[in-house]
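Lab notes, practical 5.
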Amino acid sequence: MKRNQFSFIFMAIFMLTMLSSCKFGRFIWYNFADIDDYKIFPTRELQASTKPFTFYTASKELVPSNRTYEEAELSYDNFLDQTKSVAFLVIRNDSILYERYFDDYDTASIVPSFSMAKSVTSMLIGCAIDDGLISSVQDPVSKYVPEMAKNGFDKVTIEHLLQMTSGLKFNEGYFNPFGEVATFYYGLGLRKSTENLKLEAEPGTRFAYASGNTQILGLVLDHALAGKSITDYLQEKIWQPVGMEYAASWSIDQKKDGIEKTFCCLNARARDFAKLGRLYLHQGNWQGKQLVPADWVKESTRVDSTGGSSKNYQYQWWLPTQNGDFMARGILGQYIYVNPQKNLVIVRLGHKVGTNWSEEFVRLSDEY
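Output from the prediction step:
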């Protein structure tokens, strides 16, 4: 065998080994988060509901007005296309008033949630408290994950994690292959990586958005469930009862005994994401059945800037204004926006953010 052929084979084997066993290798290969990433990670499956709920389709479509984007006036369809959207739904009073898909996506296309999963994790924490699996948001993390007491997490409460005020030392930079978020996203052994996290500030003194907070919530939930997977709990408490039309999945760190990446990576379709918004639009009640405690929904979407909290963030939900609206948000421009005053749910999924969607949703609320 010629030397250059041997070198090529050696490098190919080396790269395959890196990709399969090393988060650094996977980071180099995949480079940055993408909406096809649900294909590269192992997952736990969510089954479609046996009694699917479907939104009505309005008899008359209501198309938003033109938008000025990059100094050009565009129809709303073109605006969505130019901002790299792949799915967009406007739903009012359970009727789809406007729905568009781009780049070969359609109603059955899977898109990962990215950080919208943080809001779903919050839903499950509320359910676990209601079920008596978690006593209170004032419980310290170490009550459920004793291994973390040594790093100061006997002083960090579940509420600190929900509010992003834990004082966690965590590099949120997606471009840093050596940062914590890359370890959490691409790496194996997520339980151990989470248990090894440390603090850099006094809990309850400042807001600092960090995905590690939500993964610790996931670890707390994992311990509280005592053998049941987080995906199975989501299936039982929300996915089946709200009538999800499609099967979905939650990405995990490894095939054997893996844990859900609760800071990201719930993989589903646009209309089913919209149902999560509808659930909170109705204070956790679905067709007369209380799935998430109403008090939890209220607490999760109110403005609170005490204890170092941000007035724009509450229990893993973003608050774009101080007028009662709220949203789940993902890094590439994944959004579930809810405006209770207008009885409105908007879902936007895309390849990248593209524009200031917080302002855009408020403007759309005025139009609808």
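Observations recorded by the TA: The first helix runs from residue 3 to 21. Confidence is low (pLDDT under 50) at residues 6-21, 23-30.
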